[in-house]
Write the structure tokens for this entry.
Amino acid sequence: MELTFLGTGAGSTLGSKRFKSGLLVSSGTTKIVLDMGSGANYRLEDLNALDVQTLFVTHLHVDHFSGLLDHLVVRKLKGLPTLKVYSPPGLRSVLEAVKLAGNNVSAEVEEAELPKAKVGDLEVYSVKACHSIHAVAYVVTDGRRRVLYSGDTTEPCETILEEARDADLVVHEASCVTGCDSWGHTGVRELLGLIPREKLVLTHIPSWLEAEIIEASVGARVAHDGMRLNV
Ligand SMILES: [Zn+2]
Ligand SMILES: [Zn+2]
């Protein structure tokens, strides 16, 4: 599997250095995206990867799906096939409201509390995350290797930690250095004590805390927009 980070910023991130959440996972001709916050859609265009078939949304905070609106318009203009979107409940009504307001957007949305699907070479399932609204973390496997993507969560979150044990790589949010659990997020210091740092890649980085988070991440990798990893 190849991972490409489309957006590694948090909701509070300012500027265009880090766009909002998005991760492209490719295996052979199969391409899926996990989350599509603002700007993640532009990185997908820069990569010439508009042929992505499926999007999985972790939760309905706007920094995880707002890029989808622009992306759906581009798909229409380019005559691309309808995107299949798996999401916790609520996304369909958001898209219907946008459509009713006069936008030519459509997607095949499948909502579930815990979305899962097989897409080409990839098997994707979700577990409940521990966030301020209903949110899921996704596990993606090609049958040989497993990647866990936390979305937004506080830790310790038992369901996520259980999946982390079997994962080859854990892409995990790090929204502060320490003590952001009351906002439903994870601090790097807490995370490093829970998941082996050699399999951790940190994302969802607020611009105003970037230097401190990088400094505190000793031994774990910190993702940046455009970063690619082979798993
Ligand atoms: Zn977020
Ligand atoms: Zn969130």
User: Anything to note?
Assistant: The first helix runs from residue 40 to 46. Residues 2-226 form a domain with the Metallo-beta-lactamase; Chain A fold (CATH 3.60.15.10). The radius of gyration is 16 Å. The first strand starts at residue 2 and ends at 7.
